[in-house]
Amino acid sequence: MKVLIIGGGGREHAIAKKVSMSPRVSKLYCAPGNAGIAECAQCIDIAVMDFHALADFAVKEEIDLTIVGPDDPLVAGVVDVLEERGLRVFGPRKKAAAIEGSKVFSKDLMKKYQIPTAGYEAFDTSGEALAYLKTSRYPIVLKADGLALGKGVLICNNYEEAAAGVQSIMEDKQFGSAGDRMVIEEFITGPEVSVLAFCDGTHIKPMTSAQDHKRAKDGDQGLNTGGMGTFSPSPFYTREIDDYCKKYIYQPTIDAMKAEGRDFIGILFVGLMLTPEGPKVLEYNARFGDPEAQVVLPRMKNDLIDVVEACIDHRLDSIDLRFEDNAAVCVVLASDGYPEYYDKGFPITGIENFHEKDDYFLFHAGTKKSGEAIVTNGGRVLGVTAKGRDLKEARKKAYEATGWIHFDNKYMRNDIGKAIDEAL
């Protein structure tokens, strides 16, 4: 098979590495890719939002399967465009990707189909939002309706903070058109868990659990980011919780989307909070999480191509999804200053230390080739992942491996999985 992956971050590198291991794949392309992906795929200089150029390339090269990584092209309808050209694509169509593209849509869906989530109200104007906030209980959560690179969520402790948040999201357009509408949500507490699941429109098969660290600084301080590190599995996510979520969250979500005429085929990412009253949905995403994919895919035993094709062909129920009985931890190496201003273009050394080491993975996110060198080219630069017998060993190995890589401006959190490590 000839396979095309759309995207160029750490998630796409994790997907590309997994796909390249399939004996069914003879040629792998990635558009646009990055310096790390170039080691296992041929990178094509086409932007993820240039749908017609992507379709032209896939038709010309007789691509058998296209896998879409990022949220922006999915929400904008890349799958629809490619399918209209007779191409076989893995990812939700535009109508289904709305589950991530609009917080208002996803919250209304959960309310209509009684899927457990936090109480909320949706607003089209800042005036209505401010009037509501004057009578609200605090803390409270503000969410931009649209895509905001994982950063469009504000937790506000009082009215003054909330009013400033409304100004930032709806008036100053900090997140662009994503802030044209807004959800105001009750503040709920408990451990957060991410569960990615394969879907074929009717059936859903959850993968092993993971837990992300969104904040930029140690101790969950600083600004929200796209993710500073992850571990898998989450010890909070027990078999009992899994059974509950399958019955009351995962399958009902797929059934709800089908009932709405939005059959969901692809990866459903369910962000959960395990509250004292039980699991509740914080958010849905319509694709692999990043960096969650960097700890989940290395633990997956199945050939990814087999599972993806079963989803497209509506026969996911025939797949026995299997994961290794171990753990993985990913620590993101970022550019100091991320997620705000940061410099880039610094040479990276030590990449060769990861070659031919079974339990260690180096996933490139913001990198590019500059002559013979590989240099930093983004806020999140690399994901250092290690597997171990348990979370304690995986964490120790991952942090040890972060010392193998050097570049100016290197920054990382030092507490990825620390609370779990101490609890064990």
Please provide a written account of the structure.
This protein is of the alpha+beta class. It folds into four domains: 92 residues, Rossmann fold, CATH 3.40.50; 56 residues, ATP-grasp fold, A domain (Dna Ligase, domain 1, 2-Layer Sandwich), CATH 3.30.1490.20; 127 residues, D-amino Acid Aminotransferase, Chain A, domain 1, CATH 3.30.470; 96 residues, Glycinamide Ribonucleotide Synthetase, Chain A, domain 4 (Alpha-Beta Complex). Strands 10, 11, 14, 15, 16, 17, 18, 21 and 22 form a nine-stranded antiparallel beta sheet that branches. The chain has a five-stranded parallel beta sheet with strand order 3-2-1-4-5, sandwiched between helices. It has a four-stranded antiparallel beta sheet with strand order 6-9-7-8, sandwiched between helices. β1, α1 and β2 form a beta-alpha-beta unit. α7 packs antiparallel against α8. The chain is globular, with a radius of gyration of 21 Å.
